[in-house]
Amino acid sequence: MALRFFLSALLLLACSRQAPVIPEAGDPLTRGGAATLYVSVVGAGASGVRKVDLTAGTISQNVLPGGIDLQLRFDPYGKELAVIGRYGVDRLTFASPDLSGFRKEVALAPASNPQDIAFLNAHLAYVSYLGLEHLDLLNREGVKQAEVDLSRWSDSSGSPEATYLQWVDGKLLVTLQRLNRSFKAEDKSYALLVDPASHSIVAETELIYTNPSTESSILSDAIYIGEAGVVGMGEPVPDGGIEQLNPVSLESRGIVITEAVLGGDLLDFVIVSPSLGFAIVQNGATHLVRFNPTRGELEGSLVQGVGYQFADLLWDENRRLLFVADRSDAAPAVRVFNASGEERVRSRIALDIPPMRLELGE
Q: 340 Cβ partners below 8 Å, 6+ apart?
């Protein structure tokens, strides 16, 4: 998601309060897959985390500090939720799975702007930052054990703006936005692979477009990188797309679909298979689209939003369902679609505050 577009759009949205809608008996959310969905929420003067029990059909609040944009990552080893306080918060919070309390709060360097965390094992995790020239390797108490130097990719802002971290066959994929101080991409952006055995870079590639501002989609034989380029505040700037990379060498296999074909600036996407993908694009307002990555074709617009309505996508492979964060001021919710793009209206999870980030637990 593009920072400037989000920060400006957030100021226009108000918080809406309503009772949660509980999934009905027999609803597809209650069958198979993870039992828990975590949702970070942010509205006018309020923010936090919600835990949705997809089996019991209940929604609980949190005891965690808030923030304008909380990134969520479930730790599969420690069985706890990591909450990354970004954009001025500069904090990691490790919470119990039920959000009843937190084990540890870690204050990070001022203005470091942490972006993501990737768990290496039960004891160690990598953290990326927009404001620093390296990745940190932290232990469970938040103490630095090592770092990965990224300084040779730094730009005029003084850092390479490392964003998302994802595991690819035992290597750590790192995307570098390389933004200037106006949060616009410089001339080049990159993707790297880190070997955790040596904490060193073992592969790199210069991306075709700039500003990899979304999570990547990783299939068994391909990595897909979303490259947003310049994100316009009104009219879209169609200068980006989704690029496919070799998962071992990071050699580019080309652009699978452009923003011009998708119909606007790329804010988020998921690729389910070589023939199926979903994206949030904005062309004055956000909307949800379905596309074919192999053919590079748009297959239809599923929902037209109003303003900055759609914020995040999460694909549940076990249930074969797509979760969509809908920030509608009238009815904030997590909406659910099947692989054909049909909305499961009975599965919609209404929230008290508009959702921003989605993460599955166990």
A: none
